[in-house]
Amino acid sequence: MAECSPAVAMVKEECADADVQGQLCQDIERVLISAEEIQDRIRELGRQIDERYSGKDLLLIAVLKGSIVFIADLMRAISIPHEVDFLATSSYGASSTSSGVVRIMKDLNEPIEGRHALLVEDIIDSGHTLAYLTRLFSARNPASLEIVTLLDKPSRREVDIELFWTGFSVPNEFVIGYGLDFNQKYRNLPYIGVLKPEVYEPGSE
Ligand code: IMP
Ligand code: MG
């Protein structure tokens, strides 16, 4: 029997101890970043954020819904006092490519004037969402405005984004898991993976 590649073996390993996710696991082609790698990187980011914002009025702002899992782990990796707030932008709907159109579906509850705002994103793809949010929030006069993103897809950038921290760079592929969805599903997988093509392109088999 042919040996399976390390990436496929990793899907099997990750799936083996996740009975409840077994059905979702069947749709995964490869694991790009394991649950353990994600947690290790988040601990490092937490320590860097502690140092940078020590003694400052830090407000983490998560962009719903993709960032919920990341912010939940990141805030627990940060040991300095801070607050969190949430914002929702329009999503891609059932498509797997960016429309470039950004709409605010839910604004922040808190004013950010004079505070140190740190935007927490799941992934930067074309950059349109963050370019828009950076303009919107800068106009509210925060003491500082920076970005931390779990994933970056630099090959897809259409607009320049300045100053952000990145967990991992990923290739130009549609990724799911750890908060990221396709058609609102797969957010509960603990790792970042790539779907089998037939899942998002029915008939391509
Ligand atoms: P951007 O405006 O093109 O930079 O991307 C905006 C949003 O699209 C991201 O914050 C994600 O929520 C979503 N997105 C982009 N690429 C992916 C992907 O590969 N998988 C899942 N969601 C994605
Ligand atoms: Mg997002």
Describe the structure.
By secondary structure, the protein is of the alpha/beta class. It has a single domain (32-200), classed as 3-Layer(aba) Sandwich (Rossmann fold). The chain is built from 6 helices and 9 strands; from the N terminus they run ααβαβαβββαββββα. The strands form 2 sheets. A 6-stranded mixed β-sheet has the order 4-3-2-5-6-7, with helices on both faces. A 3-stranded antiparallel β-sheet has the order 1-9-8. Helix 5 links the parallel strand 5 (116-124) and strand 6 (144-152). It is globular and about 50 Å long. The model has no long low-confidence stretch (mean pLDDT 87). Bound molecules: inosinic acid and magnesium ion. Residues 63, 66-67, 121-122 line the site of magnesium ion.
Q: Summary?
A:
Helix content is 29%, strand content 26%. It is an alpha/beta fold and 205 residues long. The strands form 2 sheets. A 6-stranded mixed beta sheet has the order 4-3-2-5-6-7, with helices on both faces. A 3-stranded antiparallel beta sheet has the order 1-9-8.
